[in-house]
Each structure stands twice: as C-alpha cells, then as structure tokens.
C-alpha cells in the first residue's frame, strides 16, 4: 500500500490544530481538501482518527496511537530529506572545466580560488578545440566550458561573461596593413580572413571571421583551420589574416606576424556555459569565482 505523505502531513497538522479551518490555512488548502485527505487516510488505515462534531475535533484512541508512532517517524523523514538537500548543496567530487585556447589569468585565478575554498572538489581543466566550442559539453566530457562569444544555443546556459578585450588583426609582416598603427573594420573590405572549420554553428564562425564589413562590403573567406596554430602558420605564409583578441595576440607572438589594433567590431569576450538544467553546486561556485 503506497504511503501518501500529504495525508500524513494533514493528519499531523490537524492533530495539533484540532480545527479544519486553521489546518487548511497552514497547508494552503481548502477545508474540503483537508477533509478528503483525512478520509482517504482513514480508509487506508481502516478506522476513524478524529471525532468530529459541530463544536469540537478530537483524536480517537486510534488517532492517538497513530500520532504517537507517526511523529518520530515523520521527523526522521524530514531529517533524511534535509540531509539529502545539504549533500546536494555541498561542493565535492570533481568539476571538469573546458576552455578554448590558452587558459588566461582570469580563468587560472578562478581555478585557484575555487580549489582553495573547496578542497573536497577536484577541478580538472582541459583544452577544447577552437572549431568545436560546444561539443564536449554536449557529450558530457566537461561540466562547463569557457568559450568565445556569441553563444545562442537553446540547450546551453550562458553564465558570467568576462575577459572583454578589443580585437586585433593578425597579419603577415608583408601584408599591406602590417605597418598601420590601427585599422577600422571597413578596412577589411576585400581582405581574406582565415576561418574555423568544423561543427561550430554558422553564427559563431561568422563572428570569428565575418564575411562582410559593418557597411556590407565583402570580406573574402580564406582557408579553414581547426586550431589557432594552424591559422598562425597560414598568416605567416601570407595566406590570409585572422581576428584575435589582444591577450591571445600577446600570448602567441610569432616571428613574421604582426597584430594591428582593430576598431569597429564588437570586443572579444569569454563566457562560462553549461548544459541547461545541470547547474550543479560546483558549477555555480566556479561561476561565482569568475564573477569576482
């Protein structure tokens, strides 16, 4: 016989209040619903639990016997649920974080702060391919990922956005724009931009290598690459240019390549993302460290 917790809760409250109206108020139910629950419990047990008259409500001997046994059992059940809630809210186990490219200082600081404050949770970091920002998340091989914006996936949640930096254009030192102090997005008209191939959605690849200037002038699509290092090799060979943020440009300096500050396009930015409905306590805690 299945136990209906709502029936037991109704019985316990009514045994305290001895009044159907006050019981209904405490349980946010109608009085008729309280009566239905009580009657169902009495049928389940096989006898009346309360004596009900127009003036008073009182426990029957059967009701008193049930109350004596039920109170400690119900309190134990509440403790079990509370213990489970505390366990679910505890940051422990392992947290797997993926990131595109090199982990920058902000990511490393967040990892260090998280690990020092949550010693019972081991954090693992792994590099994600630049041409597949969301695949590891969907396969379940990471719990959250630090990826380049934009992110417009229905099954993913975008958490804290950080590491906003202006774009630069990486070009071969023989490129016509290499000696410019800065360039505008409109100067990309007629240029060839190296793009990422692979399973990344079209809107994301378009953001990393636009095919039009803001005014609509054509930008040629160059060779597709899978990694940043492949792109840098093509840039050094003067096969095209590539958009990179300032920190990435500084971290990946290479002979024969110069980076020129670029205006007129949105800043590069990173975000922590995770699967919708799967924000674990560990993911939530790590997200808070990235916000700091």
Automatic annotation (TrEMBL):
SUPFAM superfamilies attached to this UniProt entry: Periplasmic binding protein-like II, Winged helix' DNA-binding domain
Stored Pfam families: HTH_1 (PF00126), LysR_substrate (PF03466)
GO molecular function: DNA binding; DNA-binding transcription factor activity
Domain HTH lysR-type intervals: 3-60
Signal peptide: none
Keywords, in A-Z order: DNA-binding, Transcription, Transcription regulation
GO CC terms of this entry: protein-DNA complex
InterPro entries named among the record's database cross-references: LysR_HTH_N, LysR_subst-bd, WH-like_DNA-bd_sf, WH_DNA-bd_sf
Family in the record: Belongs to the LysR transcriptional regulatory family.
Protein's name in the database: LysR family transcriptional regulator
Species assigned in the record: Kribbella soli
